[in-house]
Amino acid sequence: MIDDLASVALQTAIADLGQRQRVTANNIANVETPNFTASSLSFESSLASAVNSGDPAAAQVSVDPTTDPAGINGNNVNLDTEFVTATKTSLQEQLLTQALTSHYAELSTALKAS
C-alpha cells in the first residue's frame, strides 16, 4: 500500500463518503418511522485540518442529528434533501476514485521510469 499524503487523503475521503452514503441510506429507510430523527455526517473540515497537519488518517467523522422540522409523526427526514445528498456523495466518490486511480497510475509510471 502506498502511504503518501495524497493517497491517504483520497482514501480517507472515499471511506468517509461511504459512511455518508450509509447514513443517508438509513435516513431514507426510516422515512416512515415515527419520531425518527435524521442524521447528517460531516468530515470535510476535519480532513482539511488533518491534511494540513500532515496526517489525513487522523480526520474525524461527525454524525449529528439534523435540525429539519418534524412532520406530524415526529419524523424529520426530508426525502428531497436525502436524494440530493445521495447523488452528490455518489458523484464525489466517483471523482475521488478517479483521482486516486490517476494518482496510482502516475506513481506506477514514475517507478517504471526509474
Q: Please, could you describe this protein's structure?
A:
This protein has 114 residues and is mainly α. It has one domain (5-113). It has 3 helices and 2 strands; from the N terminus they run αβαβα. The protein has helices spanning 5-29, 44-52, 79-113, and strands at 39-42, 62-65. Strands 1-2 form a two-stranded antiparallel sheet. It is elongated and about 65 Å long.
> How many distinct folded domains?
1
Q: Give the CA-based shape.
A: elongated
* Percent range for β-strand residues: 5-15%
Structural class: mainly alpha
Q: Round the Cα radius of gyration to an integer and report it.
A: 18 Å
Side by side, the strands of the main sheet go 1-2
Unreliable spans are: none
> Roughly how many Å apart are the termini?
19 Å
Order of helices and strands: HEHEH
